[in-house]
Structure formats: C-alpha cells, structure tokens
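Just curious: can you write whichever protein you like plus the matching structure tokens?

***
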Amino acid sequence: MKQYTKLKEDRHVLRDVIPLHKPFTLLIEPSNYCNFRCVSCFQSLRQSNYITDHRCLMDLTCFQKIIHQMQTWEGEKLKVLKLSLYGEPFTNPDFCEMLHIARQANIAERIETTTNASLITPKIAEHLVTEGIDYIRVSIYGGNQARYREVTGVDCADIEQIIENLNSIQWWKKRLAKERPFLSVKMLDTFSAENDEFKTRFAPVADELYLDQPHNWIASEEKSFLDSLYATEEKRTKLKQHQQTAFRARKSCPMPFTTLAVRADGMVSPCCIDWKGATNLESVHQRSLREIWNGAEMYAFQKMQLEGKNQENPSCRDCEFYKSGYYMLDDIDGLPVEKLHNPVSVPNDMRSSRDD
C-alpha cells in the first residue's frame, strides 16, 4: 500500500475545482471522550467548553443515518471517510460495528482513523484487519515511558502496551495475509534525541514512521498548548524557528471547501480543528449532509473565508492551523466569491429532501 504521507501526491489543485459537488473528506466522530489528557491538547483543559458540555458517544442510529445520507448523495465517492475527530475513537464500544457499516456502504475511496492505540485489544485488532480499514494513524506522545506519561497526563499510559497492541494488528495481518490496515505511526517533532528513541522503539510495529510538525489547536485562554509541550527555552526557540519557516500569510482557510465533520452529537462543521464549536452549522438530525453542504450557512461560511473576514468567527480568529504550509497545501486567497454555488440557485429538490 502507498505510504500515508505520500497520499497527498495525487491530489487536485483546490482553486481549480471549487465548488465541489460533495466534500472530499467526511469525518465522523464515534466519541468525544478521551482516556488521555495530553498537555498539548484541549482534552487537558479544566475550563468548560463545547466538548465538556456535549460529552457523548455517537449511537449506531445516528451513524447509520449519516452513512445512508452519503449513500443517497449522487456523484463520486468521498476521497476519505475518517472515523475519528476530537476524541479517542475506541472509547466507543460500537467502533467495529461502525467500521463494518461504513465498509459495506462503499461510500469512500479509503477509510481511516486516528487513535492513541491504547484501547486496541486483540479482538479489536482482528476486526480492524477483517473489516479492512485502510489506514490507521497512530499518535505517539513520547520516545520513552517517562516522557509518555508526562505528556499524556495519565499514569495508565504504557508505551509498551501501545507497542503490543500495534503488534497484535500486524500479527493478524500476517495470519490472514492482509495488507490492510496500513499503520502510519507518528509523533510531533521534539527537536531532540527523543525523535530517535521514537523511531527505534516503534519501527518493528509500524508500516511507516514519521515526525509530524508542531501545530496549535485553536487558542485557549487557559493555557498555550504548544508551550505546555515544548517546555524548555531551547525547544521553544526551535519551535519558533520552525513556525517562521512553516507559516504562510494566508487570509482564507481551504478546509471548508473540502471537508465536513460530524461531531458525536450530530452537529456538523466544515472544520476538523474547531474543538470550541463556533464553526458548527447544523445537525444531521435536522438536515441531511447534502442539504448542509449546499445550504445558506455553508455558503456564508465559505464566502466569509474568501472575503478575508474569518476573524469574525470566534474559532477562526483564534486559529493558526490554516496558515501552516505543512498541513494546508492549497492557497485559495483571491479566489472570487462568484466561484461558489449560491444556495439560491440550488434546485428545490436538493434543498428540501431529507435523505434520511
């Protein structure tokens, strides 16, 4: 299989294909709970926020509704269906059933998830192989046990257990002669020798190893996520140097033109970084994904981006993710608003059908 980090080599230039008939990427959140409290993540915050106020597992009825809506949405398949968002997906005991439903529906070119891998039992490992999830991105938080517990914020975090869980997936792949799932194991660049510890420790159980570039979540008044992770002066200096070369002076975020994200409670956003919830549009319990994608709220959000007014949105105002040349390959600054589909011109049947 192709390495996960090479998948973006085969891609459209976004400004040439806007507006899309349907999103390239759909994220569905099985759970917004997490069993870790990583210092670099909003899950470690003590303040009340959208996640803490809407803690839940997505139930199978809601998940099936979403999948059915995509099945009845005509046109090409999704490029990516991602079964994860803001929480640890395997905290939902129905994850494997969700994967089975999604695979049978055949609505996406590939299915993937992102996980800390701490809850992958041998039985779950078997299901991941037999159901054929394409890619599993595994987030690692330290090159050694002491650092792992320091970053994750929980004593139960066991780096050797993570390795054993990933090895279980590889064992099932060999036993059943399967190439899926492809295990792409990553850690944020530490700017230190810890990078080599990570590579040495996880090389035997990974199909691909790579260092992700530091990125900040939408800013919080409670603390700086990256400062909490890069706690020494030396690391912060290297972080600042990295950001000076990686960031671009962009006005428009490309994500709302390619992406829909369904939270565990059914709310839909055009963003996968907005833990605060200020970019929420509507709920799948009231309108279908096709209606939302072609609706007035989405049009207004995209228009705001193209007009350089995203600072008017509380979450966008506190976000720097879209300025990263590493994570955001497209630049749509200057694209005229006239390129968008004004919802006034959307056929009546598209606006009124429920697809439930």
Observations:
- Residues 41 and 225 are 6 Å apart (CA to CA).
- The mean pLDDT is 93.
